[in-house]
């Protein structure tokens, strides 16, 4: 177990005490645990508090909407409302006070600076502004680090291509997935090699795709840019929590002093945060005023690469995301993450698109995993050969048997925010 | 002529001197006028400088792109790039330094406060974030006045309706035109009277539509809200320059200390700014660092309702926009503004949509003005009768003869930013 340091403990106890006093959700939850005002004192066994899941927050907003009993300030103190990007069916509303907003900038500015963003970068910010924190909350730190920001949003790729060329845009901030759209449209509409767009740096976020072998190298090769995983975060905790620095050796944790980090095993037991440890990341609010969270499960599985306590008593660490616990499939005892299939695609392009869906098996221990790929090849021998080649490559790479099903090119929705890889059935598409 | 007050004169002379030193565009332009460094001293006949038009800025960016020789700072000092919303063919890029950005918030915050926005308002900001200054630059002042901001953008009306209802949104910031879309979709998708959405205040901008007789009353009646013309401005000068206050008696000028205002007659001669004066508004930068403008023609024709010099030596005024000089048609000696036709539409709804285009006559003195309206009525007697009724009403209201042409409902593009009313030919649609 990671031992809470005194410097963090005092902040954490103050946050718990505030939440107990101001948030009906936490007041009731603490009461149900037998915790009373005055109980949050040095030595309080924080690691024994139960974990909190997103479904509990969604249920709170569904029953006590719109902002739930979690809200710990009067509604008129909320300055900005975001929503989660909605890979789950119902969005979660995120309510930020003035200080909460400022905290998102602090951590994001640390992250963008560490990623090398600064004066001379002319960054088109191509994340959705439509309530997503990837929009306005992640845009402003681009200006804060001294780069030139271009608040572009998503949904007009032709205009983006024109703007990149006419404005001499040399950097992009987007999801990695979007780069496939940009690449294809650049070739189709401009007849131009994407490397000639002049993009020098890509600051990516919103999804963990750069971790998939081959994806980063592919984007870097196609566009002739340096691709940086600049943005790991989640709105309900902090829009940007971590990001790569110049070394690009895992994600550097930037939320120290704002968020308290833990690592837990599959049963929820705390694990020491030290090099080599793997587990699920769990976060707690040290400062959040609007919607304070304690021991919040991220579903993100991380491997700690390096960790130490700095002079200020706060944790510093590097980690890499190895998958999402809620997307992990266990197939005949083998852990398999659907997004990992991205790594086999380049070998089959352009007959195959970058977009696919894995159908979650009803029985976890299924014989073969159903995967829907897109192609323009007509029904026939060539297509059957492609299917067999993909299945062979997947089996060799992941020791996983797949059954290839076909969809026409363009059939799978292109996501504005972050890519999905898992569906419950083929009908979901 | 409005006499420059000493307090404004010193700011203006400093701005001219800076521009001469730092902007190649102004250095050359001043040199061509025989003006040398050191010429901008008290008593300088500012009102004799030639007027500047948008086409000159567009030509500068086309020839010396992307930001033109107008730029008065090194490119790396630019923090944000907007573009004009593009009713003209080519967008103009607007480059803002940190101070320029801060100035947009100062004036916008004055405007939103005067419009009554503040704590308790939960404002969905439904202007396009895609580089337009109506996006991020106009969004942040909503938070600055203490309201709750919802950065929504445009393009997802169904989600907006759902969000208004689930979040209890009680105010909207959008173009007036967008309210027609929202009204129709609310009825069609939710089967709900728009007045039941719960919107109490509408803060409108981006276009002068509220000035058209009947438009404000129609929006207020349909939605049961108070409609405020909260946002008069143009990115190249200042995103928000003026807006209505609670009296809703014209636009209150909020750019004092940031922008210097003049009024000119059709030949460009200065007019006194005093109650009853009408002319074109002309603006100059007192503080703009990125792209300083002097004697910039807005093409907006204004009537001054009230004006005085405050204790700080700076102009305060109220005015109303009576039309755009570049959209004004002179028909047999009668001035006619295409957007004025909005006022006759409600009498013919729902057979007629809110969208139409006036075809600019090749000969200004044409017999009848060609107007394209949308309807779902089939070719036949009923439609002919509708056309005759519209023409009769327009003739009675404006002393203008029109020839009605028909387009199917939905044929005219719905604009995300601001409505257009004038085209060169029917083919332009």
Task: Provide a compact summary of the structure.
2 copies of one chain form a homodimer. Chain A has 429 residues and is α/β, with parallel strands linked by helices.
Describe this structure in words.
2 copies of one chain form a homodimer. With 429 residues, chain A is of the alpha/beta class. Chain A folds into 3 domains: 6-96 and 256-324, Rossmann fold (3-Layer(aba) Sandwich); 103-233, 3-Layer(aba) Sandwich (Rossmann fold); 329-428, GMP Synthetase, Chain A, domain 3 (2-Layer Sandwich). Helix content of chain A is 26%, strand content 26%. A 12-stranded mixed sheet of chain A has the order 4-3-5-6-7-8-9-14-13-12-10-11, with helices on both faces. Chain A is globular. The model of chain A has no long low-confidence stretch (mean pLDDT 92). The interface between A and B is large, with 39 and 39 residues.
SSE map:
2 copies of one chain form a homodimer.
Chain A: H1 6-22, H2 24-32, H3 54-63, E1 80-83, E2 93-96, H4 98-114, E3 122-125, H5 136-144, E4 148-151, H6 157-167, E5 171-174, H7 178-190, E6 201-205, H8 215-223, E7 226-234, E8 238-243, E9 251-253, E10 259-264, E11 270-271, E12 278-285, E13 296-309, E14 315-324, E15 329-331, E16 334-336, E17 352-359, E18 369-375, H9 381-398, E19 402-408, E20 422-423
Parallel strand pairs in A: 3-4, 3-5, 5-6, 6-7, 17-20, 18-19
Antiparallel strand pairs in A: 1-2, 7-8, 8-9, 9-14, 10-11, 10-12, 12-13, 13-14, 15-16, 17-18
């Amino acid at each position: 177990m990671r031992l809470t340091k005194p410097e963090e403990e005092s902040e954490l106890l103050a946050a718990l005490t505030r939440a107990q006093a101001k948030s009906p959700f936490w007041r009731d939850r603490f009461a149900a645990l037998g915790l009373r005002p005055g109980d949050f004192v040095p030595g309080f066994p924080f690691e024994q508090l139960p974990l909190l899941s997103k479904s509990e927050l969604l249920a709170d907003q569904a029953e006590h909407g719109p902002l739930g009993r979690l809200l710990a300030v009067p509604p008129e103190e909320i300055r900005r409302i975001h929503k989660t990007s909605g890979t789950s069916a119902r969005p979660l509303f995120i309510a930020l006070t003035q200080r909460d907003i400022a905290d998102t900038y602090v951590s994001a500015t640390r992250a963008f600076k560490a990623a090398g963003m600064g004066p001379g970068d002319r960054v088109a910010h191509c994340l959705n502004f439509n309530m997503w924190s990837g929009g306005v909350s992640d845009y402003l730190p681009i200006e804060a680090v001294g780069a030139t920001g271009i608040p572009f949003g998503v949904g007009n790729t032709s205009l983006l291509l024109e703007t990149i060329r006419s404005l001499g845009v040399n950097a992009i901030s987007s999801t990695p997935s979007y780069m496939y759209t940009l690449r294809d449209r650049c070739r189709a509409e401009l007849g131009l090699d994407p490397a000639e767009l002049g993009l020098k740096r890509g600051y990516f976020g919103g999804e963990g795709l750069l971790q998939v072998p081959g994806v980063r190298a592919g984007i870097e090769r196609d566009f002739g840019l340096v691709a940086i995983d600049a943005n790991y975060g989640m709105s309900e905790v902090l829009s940007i929590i971590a990001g790569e620095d110049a070394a690009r050796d895992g994600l550097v944790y930037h939320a120290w002093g704002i968020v308290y980090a833990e690592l837990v095993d599959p049963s929820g037991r705390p694990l020491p945060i030290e090099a080599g440890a793997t587990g699920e990341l769990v976060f707690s609010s040290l400062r959040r005023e609007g919607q304070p969270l304690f021991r919040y499960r991220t579903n993100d599985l991380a491997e700690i690469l390096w960790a130490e306590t700095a002079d200020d008593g706060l944790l510093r660490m590097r980690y890499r995301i190895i998958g999402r616990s809620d997307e992990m499939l266990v197939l005949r005892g083998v852990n398999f993450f659907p997004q990992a299939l991205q790594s086999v695609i380049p070998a089959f392009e352009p007959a195959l698109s970058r977009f696919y869906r894995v159908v979650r098996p009803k029985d976890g221990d299924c014989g073969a995993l159903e995967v829907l790929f897109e192609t323009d090849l007509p029904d026939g021998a060539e297509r059957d050969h492609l299917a067999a080649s993909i299945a062979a490559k997947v089996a060799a790479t992941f020791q996983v048997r797949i059954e290839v099903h076909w969809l026409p090119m363009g059939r799978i929705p292109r996501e504005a925010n972050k890519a999905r890889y898992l569906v419950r059935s083929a009908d979901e598409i």
